[in-house]
Each structure stands twice: as structure tokens, then as C-alpha cells.
Specification:
Blueprint: E1 3-7, H1 11-21, E2 29-34, H2 37-51, E3 56-59, H3 65-75, E4 79-82, H4 89-99, E5 102-105, H5 120-123, H6 126-132, E6 135-138, H7 146-158, E7 161-171, H8 185-192, E8 196-200, E9 203-207, E10 213-218, E11 222-229, H9 233-240, E12 246-252, H10 255-266, E13 275-277, E14 280-282, H11 284-291, E15 305-316, E16 319-330, H12 331-338, H13 342-359, E17 367-370, H14 376-385, E18 390-395
Parallel strand pairs: 1-2, 1-4, 2-3, 4-5, 5-6, 6-17, 7-12
Antiparallel strand pairs: 7-15, 8-9, 8-12, 10-11, 11-12, 13-14, 15-16, 16-18
Helix pairs in contact: 1-2, 1-13, 3-4, 7-14, 13-14
Length: 401
């Protein structure tokens, strides 16, 4: 029951596999697959050196449904943990259906040729997974993932009703590079440059990217500029908590990062449509990705902390109440434990926890599920045990912006 196949050998995949190996009572056998097998082998060597656990590795093009199905059938896992690119979600879900295996991911699907992500493509698999008696758990990272669990925990234990919800994502780390992204540059830059979007009074409100700024004082990080953005958990939260009047997502960025982003956009380096260069087509953003520092290389350089959480205002026993739940993660401590910085750690650990709850049968069901549909209590307990302890406190008043 504890056999898992992890697809994706980036920073998140590395953290998830390291953390799985630290729980051999849950994960009896781990296979790691990626297009570049040497990356899998390097992670397996690190895992063995740190824990003594042997991780099997395999080369896999996850766009190839037949090849992915064959690998799943060979490994015979109880669960496939998809930590590859969001472009590959649907192909891996198809392979899981073909092989009859449960599925988990951390980020929703988006097409390669359009900077757009939404759950509709994956929610459309509901009947097929249900009819097959299989479970697909979507968005089991930090945001989405833990932020959804924080919200569900708030609704279950802390507030009788939620009126407003704000998700605050702060990375106070410094890697020393003039410009770099903390996860896949192509995905990161597409996300950051998308128009802002939030849920208010039963409809979506859109605006220009990074146009709405607020200052917030983050515990153990300090005051940071944060910007209103669209993020995928807003879609699922609005679906499963339609009574919430307003749901927003905020992320911090430094001035240097935004200056580089502005220049890159002005010169066309963020384009995702092909252009001709010396007789061949290239995608400017993919070319930029090749020039930027590899996110996995940032671990030994990054110092500082992340602070991610939710602020919810609603009613408790007839009175208004505002509750703040958050986690602070130290980049250097994350690197010392797993060889990856905190941005990868805060996504890889929740993926491991979700996988553990699925292979143990704590989370079960037939169909496609989001984290908001799961019982938050076992997940919250495991966060405290496995390196992402959370704190909760009341705020004197709702956010005034």
C-alpha cells in the first residue's frame, strides 16, 4: 500500500522524495521518474546519503501517455504523485485512469500555448475517476494546498461563517542573484504577469497585473510590498465556499525583481508565441529560462524566511472575529534538511503529507477532489510534525485595504 511513483525531479520533487524517505513506515517503496534520469539519480543519491533509503529511478516523457501508463503498470504504485509541469497534468491523469491508480498533484493544468490556468479541464475528469473507483486530489502544495486547508480549518473550528478571506504569500529570502525565480521560470513568469483577479460579491473582478500594492508587516520577515494577483486556489475556494463575499491573493515582490520583469516584458522576452531566430523558431520565454539560474541551484545561496498564511474575517457566536493562520519557513533550515530552499520545501512537504494520507486511506473517495473537500485536521497535525508548523492568532480588526 505504501508504493508511490513520483513524476518530476525539480526542487519540489526532490523535497517530496526526501520527506517520503524519512517516513518509511508510510512509504515502503519510492520510484522517481523524470525526462532527465540523471536528475532523478542525483536526488536518489542524496536521499540514500541522508536517510539510507534506496529510491528507484526511471526516465520518462510524461507527455507520452502510453509510456507513463507502462511505467505505472511496471512500478505498481498505490499512488502517482505528479510534481512535473502543469502542462502535463492531463496526460498523467489519463495514464492513471488507464493503469487504475490514484493521482495527486500540486498545481492545476494550463496549456503550453496560452498563459491560462483553471480547474475546469481537471474537474471534467470527475465522472471518469468516479466510475473507475479512483481518487484524484488536486492542488496539494502550499498555495494552493495548505492555504485551502487553513481555510477549511478556519471554517470548521474558528468561525461560524467566513465573510472575507485574504491569502498572503511572502518570500523574504535573498539568493544573491540580480534576477532569478524560485521555481520553474517559465511557469513562474507566466503566473506573475497575468492580470490580477479576485472574487467579490459573487463575481470575478479583474485588473492589470501587479497594479494594486499594499504594505504588510510579516512576522519574522518584516514589512514588505505585496501585490494583488490571481492564483489558482481562488477558483476552488469560490466554488466550495460560495458564501465568502471576497477572496483575494497577495504575493510579495522586491523592487529589483519588478524592474527586471518590466524590462524583460518590454523587450519581448516574456512572449510565449514562437519567433524566428537564425532560421528556426524559438519561444522567447523558454530561451530566457535557459539563461536564468536553475531554481534547484538556489538552495545553498538563499537566506531568510517565507511567511504564508490566511486572514479570515467572519462571525463567531454572533460577533465579528478575524483569524490569522500562517507558517514561517527558514530557507537555510530547509536546505540543511533536504538540499532545497524553502519555496520548494513549502510545496514538497504538503505533497508528501497528502500522499501519506491517501496511501494510508485517511483521504479516500472516488472522483476528483480539491483540498477544500478534505478533513483539515489530520493534515494540520502532520504539518506540525513534518517541518511546517503553523501558528494561529486573532487580529484586532479585519484588513483595512
Amino acid at each position: 500500500m505504501g508504493r508511490v511513483l513520483v513524476i518530476g525531479a525539480g526542487g519540489v520533487g526532490s523535497v517530496a522524495v526526501h520527506k517520503m524517505a524519512m517516513s518509511p513506515d508510510i512509504f515502503s517503496h519510492i520510484t522517481l521518474a523524470s525526462r532527465t534520469k540523471s536528475k532523478c539519480d542525483a536526488i536518489a543519491e542524496s536521499v540514500k546519503a541522508r536517510t539510507g533509503v534506496v529510491v528507484e529511478t526511471a526516465a520518462l516523457d510524461a507527455d507520452d501517455i502510453a509510456a507513463t501508463t507502462a511505467l505505472i503498470q511496471s512500478v505498481k504504485p498505490a499512488l502517482v504523485v505528479n510534481l512535473a509541469l502543469p502542462y502535463q497534468d492531463l496526460a498523467i491523469m489519463e495514464a492513471c485512469l488507464a493503469a487504475g491508480v490514484n493521482y495527486l498533484d500540486t498545481a492545476n493544468y494550463e496549456p503550453r500555448d496560452e498563459a491560462k490556468f483553471e480547474y475546469s479541464w481537471q474537474w471534467a475528469y470527475q465522472d471518469r475517476f468516479k466510475d473507475a473507483g479512483l481518487m484524484a486530489l488536486l492542488g496539494c502544495g502550499f498555495d494552493p494546498g495548505v492555504t485551502s486547508v487553513f481555510t477549511t480549518y478556519t471554517a470548521k473550528h474558528l468561525l461560524d461563517s467566513i465573510e472575507t478571506l485574504d491569502i498572503l504569500d511572502c518570500n523574504g529570502g535573498d539568493h544573491g542573484h540580480p534576477f532569478a525565480t524560485n521555481f520553474n521560470p517559465e511557469i513562474n513568469l507566466r503566473e506573475v504577469t497575468a492580470p490580477s483577479r479576485h472574487w467579490e460579491n459573487g463575481q470575478w473582478v479583474e485588473g492589470p497585473a501587479l497594479a494594486h500594492k499594499q504594505v504588510f508587516d510579516f512576522d519574522q520577515v518584516g514589512e514588505k510590498n505585496m501585490y494583488l494577483m490571481y492564483h489558482e486556489e481562488l477558483e476552488s475556494l469560490a466554488k466550495f465556499y460560495p458564501e465568502i463575499k471576497r477572496i483575494r491573493f497577495w504575493m510579495t515582490f522586491g523592487d529589483a525583481y519588478l524592474k527586471h520583469l518590466d524590462v524583460l516584458g518590454n523587450v519581448g522576452m516574456l512572449r510565449i508565441d514562437p519567433v524566428m531566430f537564425e532560421g528556426r523558431e524559438i519561444i522567447p520565454l523558454q530561451f530566457l529560462k535557459a539563461l536564468l539560474p536553475e531554481p534547484a541551484s538556489l538552495g545553498p545561496r538563499t537566506k531568510g524566511k517565507t511567511n504564508i498564511g490566511t486572514i479570515a474575517t467572519g462571525l463567531k457566536d454572533g460577533a465579528q472575529k478575524t483569524v490569522y493562520i500562517n507558517n514561517v519557513c527558514d530557507h537555510e533550515e530547509a536546505y540543511a534538511e533536504t538540499g532545497s530552499q524553502a519555496v520548494s520545501y513549502t510545496t514538497g512537504v504538503p505533497a508528501m503529507i497528502g500522499a501519506a494520507l491517501m496511501v494510508q486511506g485517511v483521504y479516500s473517495g472516488a472522483g476528483v477532489f480539491n483540498m477544500e473537500q478534505m478533513d483539515p485536521d489530520p493534515f494540520m497535525d502532520m504539518l506540525n510534525v513534518h517541518g511546517l508548523p503553523w501558528k494561529m492568532r486573532d487580529l484586532p480588526a479585519p484588513l483595512d485595504f
